[in-house]
Design brief:
32% of the residues lie in helices and 22% in strands. The protein has 2 domains: 271 residues, Alpha-Beta Barrel (TIM Barrel); 99 residues, no CATH class. The chain is built from 10 helices and 17 strands. It is α/β, with parallel strands linked by helices and 390 residues long. An 11-stranded mixed sheet has the order 1-2-11-10-9-8-7-6-3-4-5. Strands 12, 13, 14, 15, 16 and 17 form a 6-stranded antiparallel sheet that branches.
């Protein structure tokens, strides 16, 4: 935190901070306990945010639905959506979820879908399963406000243009908490916008505002550079000046607002939340021969070679070395034997491997079983005893 930050701010992981109480949905997110349902990249393209939209091209389609990183096949079938959600919720032992996009409320079909999903999740996981939803508020009205309450929504987060501030009031007085979530664009114009939004939220009795550190990424890099924005020194994503503007905002409003004001850093969104979720997912899906790295990846040793050589090694480990079969995985079709990585440090193990025509290394992979998602983060070769072709 910088020396200029007000004393009232509470430090959080990832160099974030909060004045007041951190919204409950954010508490769950930082612990990796929320699943994100990205329900299509289509929205109403509001003027206040379309120029810096960080959503990648392949997610901007209306049929681009994802549960965390997992694509939803056939998103027109709600049963398939629910099934994908349930698998991921159980894989990370989630205590809640968020609905985002695009805009989950951008048309009547999406409103109906969002409400149906909220109802299904509440029936499946109970009333304490926390669900929040993001919207620009472009289409928000009293009917949608009632529908979301009936469905069981816990919190509604707006990112409105100035012309839509008044629509937030339609949400006040319902059973869900109401707030805003917006990026801190480091310009005087945006500073004024945020101060006016906070004043309005305070006046109508809203609960919180989340100030997101402004992020530069591949989809918006050209637009940001053309407008003169640059990166903080040493950062690959943080726009210079965003944090300082957030600190200035909270200094301006802290004496006269009842809102909780939360600054969520790029590090929280890109590292803290993902690492926490990966650790939970890895713990749930790990095989006995796998270890978990500090950032939630799965580690294992893989031996590869001719089937006769690999099965010969497996026979020796099972019958002579007495390694439990459940601590290994032999794929006879591919000639692959997966083992605990700690064996590499055992005296004589590499010497044992040298007796077989195999190669061996330690893999570090993302904690997924889906082939397209189980990305290799790192490979450390240990030995290669396979014959070379002349």
């Amino acid at each position: 935190m910088s020396q200029n930050e007000p004393d009232i701010l509470k430090k959080l992981k990832g160099n974030a901070w909060v004045q007041g109480n951190l919204p409950f949905g954010c508490q769950l997110c930082t612990q990796g306990m929320k699943v994100v349902y990205f329900m299509g990249g289509d929205c109403n393209y509001p003027n206040h945010c379309k120029w810096y939209c960080p959503i990648s091209e392949h997610r901007r389609r209306k049929d681009a639905h994802f549960v965390d990183e997992i694509p939803v096949e056939n998103p027109n079938d709600i049963k398939n959506i629910i099934s994908t959600l349930n698998r991921e919720i159980r894989a990370v032992d989630a205590q809640g979820m968020s609905l985002t996009g695009g805009d989950p409320l951008s048309n009547s079909h999406k409103v109906t879908l969002a409400c149906s999903i909220i109802q299904e999740m509440k029936m499946e996981y109970g009333p304490d399963f926390h669900i929040h939803l993001y919207t620009s508020g472009k289409n928000f009205d009293p009917l949608i406000a009632e529908q979301l309450e009936t469905a069981g929504l816990d919190s509604l987060r707006f990112h409105p243009g100035r012309e839509d501030f008044h629509k937030i009031e339609f949400a006040i007085g319902h059973s869900y908490t109401v707030g805003a979530e917006i990026p801190v664009i480091p310009t005087e114009e945006n500073h004024r916008y945020i101060l006016d939004l906070i004043q309005y939220l305070d006046a109508i009795g809203a609960d919180y505002i989340n100030l997101n550190e402004f992020e530069m990424c591949a989809p918006n890099q050209t637009a940001l550079l053309n407008r003169g924005f640059t990166l903080e020194e040493g950062s690959m994503a943080t726009v210079k000046g965003s944090r300082q503007f957030a600190e200035k905002i909270v200094r301006d409003v802290s004496p006269r607002t009842n809102l909780a004001v939360h600054f969520c850093s790029v590090a929280v969104k890109d590292q803290v939340q993902i690492q926490a979720r990966y650790l939970r997912r890895a713990e749930k899906i790990r095989f006995e021969y796998e270890e978990i790295s500090e950032d939630g990846c799965l580690l294992f040793m893989r031996v590869q070679g001719p089937l006769q050589e690999v099965t010969g090694l497996w026979d020796y480990l099972v019958h002579t070395a007495k390694v439990p079969e459940k601590a290994m995985n032999l794929n006879r079709t591919q000639g692959v034997l997966d083992l605990p990585p700690f064996l590499a440090e055992e005296d004589g193990f590499i010497d044992l491997l040298s007796e077989y025509r195999v190669k061996c290394g330690i893999y570090e992979v993302l904690p997924f079983r889906e082939p397209k998602l189980a990305e290799i983060r790192e490979y450390t070769p240990l030995m290669d005893n396979l014959p070379r072709h002349s």
